[in-house]
Write a structure and sequence with these properties.
Length: about 190
């Protein structure tokens, strides 16, 4: 965690600065995936049932011996880079520091855009994931990718999240919403469960 935050601290972008401020101000709670709460572990599986069908069930997310976190199924730990629910963000514990920082940027973008309030339909999931990946790419590369890559990215998200009834051409290349992870001044931090 400390190395990820140090990477954000050294990065020259507003996205990095705003992501770091969100963590420090308690607007997001940053943890590793192996520390998922039982409720968040189950939510991860239940909000994308097609993606997890035949892989893992929500019932496999059970309390650990200490009761503080879930015993996270290894199939989740192997397949997920990051996860966000409400203001709680989880990142792979074994990720390279730079990748973990990009994942934290991606997941913070979900919090900054209140993704948990609109993550129901395939179209909403595509819009929310595309924007968060777009912002993470802007953080990583310092600029937005070209149209060809963005078309590929939209298709990849549709495939990875098993989204039915949507196509890459439905979204503009520049996504709508908060693109710099800035939280409104005076925004109140949500409490973690």
């Amino acid at each position: 965690r400390a190395q990820v935050l140090a990477t954000l601290e050294r990065h020259p972008s507003d996205i990095a600065r705003n992501t770091l401020a969100a963590v420090r101000d308690g607007k997001v709670v940053f943890e590793t995936l192996d520390r998922l709460s039982v409720a968040d572990c189950r939510q991860l599986v239940e909000e994308n049932p097609a993606q997890w069908s035949g892989v893992v069930s929500a019932d496999e997310c059970i309390a650990s011996d200490d009761g503080a976190a879930a015993t996270v199924p290894s199939r989740i730990l192997q397949r997920v880079s990051g996860y966000q629910h409400e203001n709680r963000i989880y990142v792979r514990a074994d990720a390279k520091v730079r990748d973990a920082a990009a994942t934290l940027v991606h997941e913070t973008n979900h919090v900054a855009n209140a993704t948990h309030e609109r993550y129901t339909t395939p179209r909403e999931k595509l819009e929310e994931e595309y924007r968060a990946y777009w912002v993470a790419l802007l953080f990583t590369d310092g600029r937005a990718p070209g149209a060809g890559y963005l078309a590929w990215l939209k298709g990849w998200i549709i495939e990875q999240y098993a989204l039915k009834g949507v196509s890459p051409s439905e979204l503009a290349d520049r996504p709508a919403g908060n693109l710099d992870n800035r939280f409104p001044s005076g925004a109140v931090a949500l409490h973690s469960h």
